[in-house]
Amino acid sequence: MNRTTKPRVLCLDDEPEVLESLRDALRRQFEVVVSTNGFEALRLLASDPFAVVLTDMRMPMLNGARFLTLAQEHAPDTVRVMLTGQSALPDAAAAINDGQIFRLLLKPCKTDDLVKALEAAVVEHGARINQRAERDGLVDTTVQAMMKLSAQVDPDGRARGDRVKRHALELAGRVKAITSTSELATACLLMQLGAVGVSAETRARAAANSRLGPEHATELERLPELAAPLVPGFVALEPVAALLAATAPPFATSRPRTPDVPGGAQVLRIALDFELQLRQGAPGETAMRALNGRTGRYDPALLATFGQLMQFT
After folding, report:
1. Both 7 and 124 in a single domain?
2. pLDDT value at position 234?
3. DSSP label at 236?
């Protein structure tokens, strides 16, 4: 079997000699990567795809159960297998009940049994990848269908969303710990669903590329929060709906960025408001001054970064 076609398995154990034994036992069937440190293993999982991760239960600093919980967050498609002794069975059973483990193997484990378990885990990994691809395809198809329907209500919506997305992604690229850029990009498009809550006059002026009045811009500022409850109910789109809902002002400095209040919401808020200032006929520098004058509406650090990005500071 060619090395590049072998399924990748990450093995974690605090004893180097155990890892060497695992590498020797598994090298024919798998591409084996080893680590003696749970935190290093998490970095490996986050940076490179693995079909399976195999860990011992008893580990210093970060035990196997806790490691697998974090591994699930870092690499949800990677299949998790635990190798443990009799004394650690109660803790391992708890991890199984939490849904963290695909297979539990008891020490000493025969090589044939270990290989069979890992081969089954590789099959499970393939099934997960296929399910994700099918799900993502369904989500993409649904999003595109909804955008076509939205275009009938708001013909300017797609072009507006693309302009907002360009500014939003440029700003997100300058800021750390911002919501997934793919979720942000999707939110910029799906916010146009909120046009059903906007007056026909405002939609008509936008479609005719006419200059917007303040009253029209005020209506369009509410697009994200109007769109949030209309986002299709796929699990994959839940962060997008949360991002849209969280754009509603004011900005609260005491409110932490969490999955419920994503940092990307402020990025979208700034990008949309800037676009609407431009649509009212304001030059870029004037539009930026208008945003700076709306105290309490934006994250000050993000707004300052956006001003630097637009070269208005």
Report:
1. yes
2. 84
3. G
> What is the tally of structural domains in the chain?
2
Q: For residue range 85-122, list pLDDT tens digits in order.
A: 765 566 666 666 565 789 888 888 899 999 999 999 99
Closest CA to 228 of 276, 269, 179, 187: 187
Query: What is the pTM (predicted TM-score) of this model?
Result: 0.62
Residue 259's pLDDT band (boundaries 50, 70, 90)?
very low
Name 14's Cβ contacts closer than 8 Å, sequence gap at least 6. 36, 56, 58, 59, 60
| Look-up of token digits 């979720």 | 183
Domain span at residue 55?
3-129
Residues 169 and 238 in one domain: yes
297 & 165 share domain: yes
Residue 190 structure tokens = 């799906």
Pairwise CA distance, residues 45 & 227, whole Å: 35
Which helix (DSSP H) or strand (DSSP E) does residue 69 occupy? Answer: helix 64-74
Half-sphere exposure of 158 (CA within 13 A, CB side): 12
Q: Give the C-alpha separation, 313 to 303, whole Å.
A: 11
> Amino acid identity, residue 255?
R
- Residues, the chain: 313
Based on the fold, state whether residues 180 and 46 are members of the same structural domain. no
- Residues 277-303 pLDDT 10s: 999 999 999 999 999 999 989 999 999
Q: What share of the chain is helix, strand, coil (3-state, %, to 5)?
A: 60, 10, 30
